Amino acid sequence: MTKPSNTHRPSAGPWASALRSLLRNRAALASVAVLAFIVVASLCAPFYARHVAHTDPFVSNVAGTIMLNGQETDIMQPNDNPLHLGLSPIGPTGHTAYLLGADSQGRDIMARLLYGGRNSLLISFSAAVLCLVMAGTVGIAAGFFGGVTDMVLSRLMDIMWAVPVYLFAISLSIVTITSGLRIGPFVIEADNLLIPIVIIALVYVPYAARPVRGRVIALRQAEFVTAARCLGVPRWRIVLRDILPNVSTTLVVMGPLLMAMALLAESALSFLSIGVQAPAASWGTIILDGEGLIYTRPMVAIAPGLAIVAVVLALNILGDGLRDALDVRDASRRE
């Protein structure tokens, strides 16, 4: 007589269950595909500029020419007014060279768009990660230790919360853009990308620290934390083994939203000339370049604007998918 086989399998962990739920979310998968395409395209910027467009997107080329349909065409062309006064950059050509046209300096917009994407995505991603680290540290310290620590950190967050985000970011940028940032013996030059990364991460810390603090206060009253305290487990061990793993889902869900907000902040600062500095490019600086060409060559401003919209929309959809996948209440209902 054969023994009945044991068909019971151990239940998957929360991260595995969340991954399976996320893979069933078509909207979230589509947003990941869009983000992956934009990231890969931006990383291929040097290859595109050198081997496809055959141009240097950081060098002025107002006197240059290109070959279109076998004819040599000036990059800067006379305006369409009756007197043909002034010059306007060439519009979208539909060819590999100057695919989206040129800006007022005769530089290839498509190549600059890809290079700008590298800086914009790098700054927004790095700022989001740094913000989560700082917000997680502040939120866990305030929520777990309580007392004076909670009061001091909470009041500090309230002060930062009271200042409008963009006003706070603009003020910090103006101060650092003139003389750079000095931290002890270390000096960060004004054109270093670390400056907008630190500024953007700092201004969004209160927005991310509050949910973390609330989650930690709830966990501090949980039975497993109380049991660990009664057993004499050190506080640092409780934080690392009991609090942090349960807060990590909150931090992961906030990640895409913070990156989207950081991208918008970076674009705004760069548009105001207090973010990414020349000769580097970002989507915000390209929109600034197209401000004076909005009536004659609108693609200069529209292309980076569409890229920002696509990334922000994809990040928001991905954030919704992560929230649904990691939500314990939704998971219990699915079970």
UniProtKB/TrEMBL annotation:
InterPro entries for the chain: BP-dependent_transpt_permease (IPR050366), MetI-like (IPR000515), MetI-like_sf (IPR035906), OppC_N (IPR025966)
Keyword vocabulary terms for this entry: Cell membrane, Membrane, Transmembrane, Transmembrane helix, Transport
Pfam families xref list: BPD_transp_1, OppC_N
GO biological-process terms attached to the record: transmembrane transport
Cell membrane recorded as keyword: yes
Compartments where found: Cell membrane
Family under the similarity heading: Belongs to the binding-protein-dependent transport system permease family.
Protein name: Peptide/nickel transport system permease protein
Domain of life per record: Bacteria
Annotated source species: Acetobacter lovaniensis
